[in-house]
Amino acid sequence: MFLSLKFSVLAFALQLAGVLAVPALQPYDSLAGLTRDEVDAFARSVKVVGGQPIPKPIKDTSLKLVNDKKHPWKPLRAGDQRGPCPGLNALASHGWLPRSGVATPGEIITAVQNGYNMEWFVTYAAFLVNGNPLTNLLSIGGISWLTGHAPPAPALASGLNTHGTFEGDASLTRSDALLGDNHSFNATLFQQLVDISNKVGGGKYNVSAAAEMRFQRVQDSIARNPNFNFANPRFNTAFIEAVFPIVFFIDGRLQEKGVTGLDLEVMRGFFEDHRMPKDFHRRGTPTGASDDELDFVMAAHDYTPGFNNGSVNSFVPDPNFMGTQTELVCALYEKFVNSTVALYPNPHDQLRKALNKNLDNFFVAVKDETCVQIKPYN
Ligand code: HEM
Ligand SMILES: *[C@@H]1O[C@H](CO)[C@@H](O)[C@H](O)[C@H]1NC(C)=O
Ligand SMILES: *[C@@H]1O[C@H](CO)[C@@H](O)[C@H](O)[C@H]1NC(C)=O
Ligand SMILES: *[C@@H]1O[C@H](CO)[C@@H](O)[C@H](O)[C@H]1NC(C)=O
Ligand SMILES: *[C@@H]1O[C@H](CO)[C@@H](O)[C@H](O)[C@H]1NC(C)=O
Ligand SMILES: CC(=O)N[C@H]1CO[C@H](CO)[C@@H](O)[C@@H]1O
């Protein structure tokens, strides 16, 4: 299984206005940055679910109708969360995930299998940096829409919209955080993708189009975003996300006929409206992501993990990209553990237990890759 870890240092701490006996947190807020007393008070105020076992893989992994009668697309209700991930957005809008857009890691793992036949445990990476380990809930978007009001200023929302954690730069259809809206569909960017697909994909989004779009987005960020970050983990996730649409959004029946290009209207449906096409059938075999497609996109142009060093067009390689590791996948794993420790330097009691459980769950995804487990809290 190819591993894609999506996370990085959470660049903020939840700060609460004033001294509150029970922090005014919502169940999907991050607990990062809270003091021990605040965490304890919060734990007393909610039902602590904590870390849970990884759900068993689904039994039936056949090619199957998933946009079915039980899972109709429905428009958003006030407060429903959607974010930067078209895959999860569509699962929520079809009811494979809670339509609220707030879910447990286990629900996400099962939903990506049911909806797309995606084998993917790295949900735990996202969960640890963007979710709430005590209530075991994660927002796939931001925070304010769910309740209609944000937590007291200067608190910041968590969820997948949070820039620099999981969400990153040079996305296909979302702006860099520094340049605009970092999580909503951007029609200008999608039009660039359409133009490229017309030019090199024969009007479809195939790997040639993915390769050129990926390159163009990186060049654009180098030229326009002084803070452009294309290091660990974004260097990895940006490539894998560019091929996800080909691997998971092409109807399984077409895939079996050898179709390798995604229809652009279907793609727009997923990316803009969180909508599966009528009759959508998932692919007929479980996969993490196709290494062949990934290799094609990565090999099409020269790329180096790095960042713009404070000004546009100042891209430099990241000297610490690999951390203390020699395998890419282990470096990503290590980065994730580091990010967790940066967020939770000294967790206690139920919080520590929940973090450890989720760290263990996450390690399951890299076990086969000769990485050594890092146990920051033992
Ligand atoms: C398993 C749990 C998943 C999590 C936690 C997750 C999370 C995310 C996040 C945070 C992003 C934003 C990255 C960025 O562009 O800055 C993203 C992007 C993306 N995700 Fe997911 N995702 C998951 C599963 C999926 C699935 C199942 C699919 C497809 C079936 C998918 C397809 C995509 C695509 C295509 C993008 C890129 C969007 C763009 O660049 O415009 N993801 N995902
Ligand atoms: C959408 O993308 C275009 C092209 O990069 C950019 O100029 C515009 O500001 C973006 N819009 C938002 C709302 O981010
Ligand atoms: C993508 O589609 C175009 C147009 O059909 C085709 O010329 C190109 O070879 C395809 N790319 C790959 C890698 O198959
Ligand atoms: C970034 O710029 C600073 C200041 O010019 C310099 O000291 C540093 O070495 C640069 N970083 C890299 C990775 O080149
Ligand atoms: C993780 O943290 C350790 C200890 O601070 C550091 O040596 C290592 O380089 C970091 N790894 C990554 C991938 O950032
Ligand atoms: C850092 C960050 O989260 N940036 C932005 C992401 O997009 C939303 C919506 O436009 C902004 O409010 C955030 O400031």
Automatic annotation (TrEMBL):
**Cofactor(s) the record lists:** heme b
The protein's matches in Pfam families, at most eight in alphabetical order, are given as: Peroxidase_2
Keywords, ordered alphabetically: Heme, Iron, Metal-binding, Oxidoreductase, Peroxidase, Signal
Please report the stretch or stretches of sequence annotated as the Heme haloperoxidase family profile domain.
Answer: 69-295
Q: Key word Transport present in the record?
A: no
GO molecular function, a single term: metal ion binding
Q: Which residues belong to the signal peptide in this entry?
A: 1-21
Q: Which InterPro entries match?
A: Chloroperoxidase, Chloroperoxidase-like_sf
Tell me its family.
Answer: Belongs to the chloroperoxidase family.
Q: Which PANTHER family match?
A: HEME HALOPEROXIDASE FAMILY PROFILE DOMAIN-CONTAINING PROTEIN, STERIGMATOCYSTIN BIOSYNTHESIS PEROXIDASE STCC-RELATED
The molecule here is called: Cloroperoxidase
Record organism: Exidia glandulosa HHB12029
Q: What is the lineage of its organism?
A: Eukaryota, Fungi, Dikarya, Basidiomycota, Agaricomycotina
